[in-house]
Amino acid sequence: MGVVAAIPENMQQKMRQYTWHKGCPVSLGDLVYLKMSYWGFDNKAHEGTMIVHKNFASDVLAIFQELYRQHFPIEKMQPIEEYQGDDHSSMVDNNTSAFNCRAMTDGSGKYSIHSYGAAIDVNPLINPYTDGDKIDPQEGTEYLDRTKPHKGKITMDSVAYQIFAKHGWMWGGAWSGKVKDYQHFSK
Question: What angle do CA 96, 107, 175 make, to 5 degrees?
Answer without folding.
Answer: 55
